[in-house]
């Protein structure tokens, strides 16, 4: 998002979430599952129920009974970056994983079945940013959108947009809409003319301690109130509120350091 023009961000409507290539789910792997549930439950009003346990303890977050996200627990010996990971819908996770590999990406987990929920793979693009692939069965993905507490947008922060956008276009069939600007490197990924995700090339401004990574934006009713709440709960404000054509945005992190963003849409 990052001050991109209106075409380079969420449209404000309800996307066709389960069309192939559409971001359909977000998940987070943490060390302290109970503490993380408490944090996000208080911040977004989520409740939790157990999910498939193939990758260890795992819960699904619910908002008014609708599934919105997943949170799992890392094994104690796994010291991976704590990060929200977007999953992109696929009709065939095995074929998508093959395409990821053939285009210079890697597959680190799967493809494997998550009980009867579906089939998943977790990989990384050629720049190293981690993402997931979801072939739905019983579990279609995020079941509600465009209300507070739901994922609103996913944006890749990377060194430069052109090469990595080509990778995602080849894997998921996106159309690209670049921002025409000498000093702003941004590409919107679209399906059927609808924006579904963004790629922001940051050059040397990319955080050196993190490298290329996806950021999930969660919708809130009032970003100022949400920031106060987040800090009270032990979270961190990484970038203060700023106004964009899509609304008011702030970059934040949870108590374990997982980065995400808060989005208050325009009235």
TrEMBL record:
<dbReference type="InterPro" id="IPR037523">
    <property type="entry name" value="VOC_core"/>
</dbReference>
<feature type="domain" description="VOC">
    <location>
        <begin position="150"/>
        <end position="265"/>
    </location>
</feature>
<protein>
    <submittedName>
        <fullName>VOC family protein</fullName>
    </submittedName>
</protein>
<dbReference type="InterPro" id="IPR052164">
    <property type="entry name" value="Anthracycline_SecMetBiosynth"/>
</dbReference>
<feature type="domain" description="VOC">
    <location>
        <begin position="22"/>
        <end position="136"/>
    </location>
</feature>
<dbReference type="Pfam" id="PF18029">
    <property type="entry name" value="Glyoxalase_6"/>
</dbReference>
<dbReference type="InterPro" id="IPR029068">
    <property type="entry name" value="Glyas_Bleomycin-R_OHBP_Dase"/>
</dbReference>
<dbReference type="InterPro" id="IPR041581">
    <property type="entry name" value="Glyoxalase_6"/>
</dbReference>
């Amino acid at each position: 998002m990052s001050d991109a023009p209106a075409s380079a961000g969420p449209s404000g409507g309800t996307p066709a979430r389960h069309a192939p290539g559409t971001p359909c789910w977000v998940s987070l792997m943490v060390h302290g599952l109970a503490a993380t549930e408490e944090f996000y439950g208080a911040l977004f009003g989520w409740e939790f129920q157990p999910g498939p346990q193939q990758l260890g303890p795992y819960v699904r977050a619910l908002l008014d009974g609708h599934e919105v996200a997943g949170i799992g627990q890392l094994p104690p010996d796994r010291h991976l970056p704590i990060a929200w990971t977007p999953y992109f819908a696929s009709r065939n996770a095995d074929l998508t994983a093959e395409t990821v590999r053939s285009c210079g990406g890697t597959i680190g987990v799967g493809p494997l079945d998550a009980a009867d929920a579906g089939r998943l793979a977790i990989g990384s693009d050629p720049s190293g940013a981690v993402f997931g692939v979801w072939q739905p069965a019983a579990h279609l993905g995020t079941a509600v959108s465009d209300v507070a507490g739901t994922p609103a947008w996913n944006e890749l922060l990377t060194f430069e947009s052109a090469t990595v956008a080509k990778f995602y276009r080849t894997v998921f069939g996106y159309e690209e809409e670049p921002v025409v600007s000498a000093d702003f490197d941004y590409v919107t990924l679209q399906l059927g003319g609808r924006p579904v995700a963004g790629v922001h090339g940051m050059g040397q401004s990319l955080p050196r301690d993190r490298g290329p990574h996806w950021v999930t934006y969660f919708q809130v009713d009032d970003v100022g109130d949400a920031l106060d709440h987040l800090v009270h709960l032990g979270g961190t404000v990484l970038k203060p509120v700023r106004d964009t054509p899509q609304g008011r945005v702030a970059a934040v992190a949870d108590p374990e350091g997982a980065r995400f963003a808060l989005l208050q849409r325009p009235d």
